[in-house]
């Protein structure tokens, strides 16, 4: 099976005016196969994403669909990890996204996102106490998520690769949505105040995002700034000396909450 970039290169040679025989000698591909690709252009991308990696091609491309990848990036940075799947010598990696049982809609969206980014592959779910682990196995997950590395995310640098930054610049909302869906929430804040001797109760919606990685918090803050969302951050005292302090980004300003509601909304 020839990978898409091999097919594209061969057809480009044919388009340049070379004969089937000349391209066959240069590439080692049978003339009848070249003729079939040349006459039926849909075959060029036939096996796209069925094991091939757009980042590993001689001229690398961006994962598609980019909107779904941006959302998946947010899920991975929040509640995802990449680890070896089975025998390490086979070089297969498992991308695991942890989703709480309280939000079955998020589990379904996580599965559908993985199916869109990695079509033709089986996406599995594993029940855990209080949560569900969505799993996709593939050899090229580290290519798609170069942030992968040993140890927890908060003890190592988390920086977007230039090509990831290009995607996020085009599609910042899905990234923010994925981050809030993984490590965030939307709550109703209730306040009781005394006004002119009378106690009054106020309610207003608010978003929170909590993470122990300063790099991920910076990424969230920078992206919120680009979207025009007003936010604040405070640091939670760790439960013990062995734990890292967690940063909590909050969005409470009415216009900013309405903006987030327009593309995030409550979990379900």
From TrEMBL:
Organism whose genome encodes this protein: Marinitenerispora sediminis
Pfam annotation, one family: HTH_23
Protein's name in the database: Transcriptional regulator
InterPro entries on file: Homeodomain-like_sf (IPR009057), Homing_endonucl (IPR027434), Intein_endonuc_central (IPR004042), WH-like_DNA-bd_sf (IPR036388)
GO terms for MF: endonuclease activity
Coiled-coil region(s): none
Domain DOD-type homing endonuclease: 72-229
């Amino acid at each position: 099976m020839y990978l898409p970039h091999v097919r594209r290169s061969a057809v480009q040679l044919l388009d340049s005016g070379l004969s089937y025989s000349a391209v066959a000698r240069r590439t080692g591909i049978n003339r009848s196969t070249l003729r079939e690709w040349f006459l039926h252009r849909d075959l060029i991308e036939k096996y796209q994403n069925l094991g091939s990696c757009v980042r590993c091609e001689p001229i690398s491309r961006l994962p598609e669909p980019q909107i779904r990848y941006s959302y998946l990036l947010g899920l991975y940075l929040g509640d995802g990890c990449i680890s070896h799947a089975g025998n390490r010598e086979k070089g297969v990696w498992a991308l695991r996204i942890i989703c709480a049982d309280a939000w079955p809609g998020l589990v379904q969206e996580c599965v559908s996102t993985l199916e869109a980014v990695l079509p033709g592959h089986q996406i599995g779910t594993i029940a855990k106490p209080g949560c569900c682990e969505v799993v996709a196995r593939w050899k090229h997950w580290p290519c798609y998520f170069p942030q992968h590395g040993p140890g927890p995310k908060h003890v190592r640098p988390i920086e977007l690769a230039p090509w990831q930054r290009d995607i996020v610049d085009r599609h910042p909302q899905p990234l923010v949505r994925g981050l809030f869906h993984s490590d965030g929430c939307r709550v109703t804040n209730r306040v009781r105040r005394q006004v002119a001797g009378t106690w009054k109760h106020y309610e207003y919606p608010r978003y929170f995002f909590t993470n122990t990685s300063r790099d991920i918090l910076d990424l969230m803050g920078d992206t919120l700034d680009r979207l025009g969302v007003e936010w604040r951050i405070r640091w939670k005292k760790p439960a013990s000396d062995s734990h890292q302090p967690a940063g909590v980004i909050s969005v409470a300003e009415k216009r900013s909450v309405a903006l987030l509601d327009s593309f995030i909304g409550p979990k379900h």
